Inverse folding.
């Protein structure tokens, strides 16, 4: 079978997008709730979230930092998605602690990296893999926060693909060659005792395009977020592999900044980590389920409340946001080694070029283990 063949597949059905999907140029912030188009984030938390962002009892000893006068301009890869809402919750916590946090959603990876390099943005939220690829290309960038500890991804197959072993001879849709999708495909095939030569990889594009191609019968399997899986599971499609559950050490969204910015803003860099830890623990408390659903509904126009509620249960069951999850050197190296293995990165870089876990460790000490 061909390792990869390029095709153009036009999608006729619209599905929920994901962080790896195609995104557009960022636009100015509206005062209303975000729409499907990339927009700047609201300056304050939704009214329904005002009470929910308070620290949980488990972290009662934690003293929130005074961030008055601290400023950060953040650009997030793609639109607001379900898995990004906890990070958005953390940004609102930082605002409550006194920081001026300006968030813009949208832009391709190239746009985001250019914004960082030219000084138009201070912090990026992109996948760990994209950050490492940028570092390998010479961009001065360090991962310093774990924004989404685990991947909201599953490999699903058409009616005839019932097990991983059925992937032999199958056509699998990817976003790009040497991408996180190719790595995901390799992992699933390896779990089945197969190799990449046993399947055909087709570059289709973002998640919406891949899902539409699967529904149109042009693919046998592809990777989707669990929101799309929940919509398709009653239509004969099969869940083959959960990356959330079976690959917990593969980092998803992370926050990055230049080493120079981190050196000038150590208090804020640590506070980012503290806010994410507090947000993970907020999410993990079932008493906050409705508050999370409300934040999703306010942030993502047209969301299906029933699907969002099921997503909360699914995330919680899969430990999507572990209470003590922070960036570590071991985690960064695990993710980087996986990217090297699939060819997304030529060689492993030293830790000084890809990440700085020191702020995360300081934050975990301040917040305390749970």
């Amino acid at each position: 079978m061909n390792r990869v063949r390029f095709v153009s597949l036009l999608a006729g059905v619209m599905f929920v997008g994901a962080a790896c999907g195609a995104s557009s140029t960022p636009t100015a912030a509206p005062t209303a709730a975000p729409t499907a188009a990339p927009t700047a984030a609201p300056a304050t938390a939704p009214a329904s979230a005002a009470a929910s962002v308070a620290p949980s009892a488990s972290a009662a000893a934690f003293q929130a930092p005074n961030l008055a006068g601290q400023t950060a301009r953040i650009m997030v890869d793609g639109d607001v998605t379900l898995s990004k809402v906890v990070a958005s919750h953390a940004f609102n916590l930082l605002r409550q602690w006194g920081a001026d946090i300006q968030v813009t959603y949208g832009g391709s990876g190239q746009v985001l990296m250019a914004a960082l390099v030219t000084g138009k943005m201070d912090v990026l939220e992109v996948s760990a893999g994209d950050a490492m690829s940028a570092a390998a290309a010479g961009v001065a960038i360090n991962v310093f926060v774990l924004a989404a500890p685990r991947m909201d991804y599953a490999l699903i197959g058409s009616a005839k693909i019932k097990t991983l072993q059925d992937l032999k001879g199958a056509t699998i849709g990817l976003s790009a060659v040497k991408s996180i999708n190719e790595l995901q495909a390799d992992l699933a095939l390896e779990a089945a005792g197969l190799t990449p030569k046993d399947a055909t990889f087709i570059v289709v594009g973002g998640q919406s395009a891949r899902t539409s191609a699967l529904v149109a019968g042009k693919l046998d399997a592809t990777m989707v977020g669990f929101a799309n899986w929940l919509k398709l599971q009653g239509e004969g499609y099969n869940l083959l592999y959960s990356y959330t559950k079976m690959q917990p050490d593969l980092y998803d969204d992370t926050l990055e900044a230049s080493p120079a910015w981190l050196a000038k803003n150590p208090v804020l860099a640590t506070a980012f980590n503290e806010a994410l830890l507090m947000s993970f623990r907020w999410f993990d408390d079932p008493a906050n389920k409705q508050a999370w659903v409300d934040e999703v509904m306010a942030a993502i126009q047209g969301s299906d409340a029933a699907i969002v509620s099921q997503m909360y249960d699914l995330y919680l069951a899969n430990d999507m946001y572990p209470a003590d999850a922070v960036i570590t050197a071991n985690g960064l190296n695990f993710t980087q080694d996986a990217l090297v293995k699939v060819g997304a990165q030529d060689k492993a870089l030293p830790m000084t070029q890809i990440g700085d876990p020191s702020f995360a460790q300081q934050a975990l000490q301040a917040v305390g283990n749970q």
Q: What stands out?
A: The chain has a mean pLDDT of 85. The radius of gyration is 20 Å.
